[in-house]
Specification:
Layout: H1 6-14, H2 21-37, H3 49-57, H4 84-116
Helix pairs in contact: 2-4
Length: about 120
């Protein structure tokens, strides 16, 4: 038989430290930025599925230039940066920041709409 009361057991369970939402979000952001900025350099250099099929079937040479080819982050790199590692890292980090900003704006709009109801 256990000599602990149910109140003591509940206190012990509550004594486990919970991670705050802010800490979780900041730690997640650090991991995401490291993945986007560093680990993305080690991504496969082989063509993706569509490019592979086009090469296999022999119509890869018929493709034209993409409409966003002159954009600063075309082809998973940063224009004007000659270092491949740095170019891909900057593009990855900027992508994460932009997607995060859009997500934050959408959540802020949803939150505002909920307060009105």
């Amino acid at each position: 038989m256990s000599t602990k009361t149910s109140t003591t057991q509940e206190q012990e369970k509550g004594a486990r430290r919970r991670v705050s939402t802010r800490t979780f979000v900041l730690a997640s952001l650090v991991v995401i930025l490291l993945l986007a900025g560093v680990v993305s350099y080690f991504a496969s250099a082989h063509p993706d599925g569509l490019e592979h099929v086009a090469e296999t079937l022999g119509f890869d040479t018929t493709a034209g230039d993409h409409g966003t080819e002159a954009s600063p982050f075309a082809d998973y790199g940063t224009s004007g940066v000659d270092n491949g590692f740095l170019s891909g890292g900057i593009a990855g980090v900027v992508g994460v920041v932009l997607v995060g900003a859009v997500m934050w704006a959408v959540l802020a709009l949803l939150r505002r709409g909920r307060k009105r109801d």
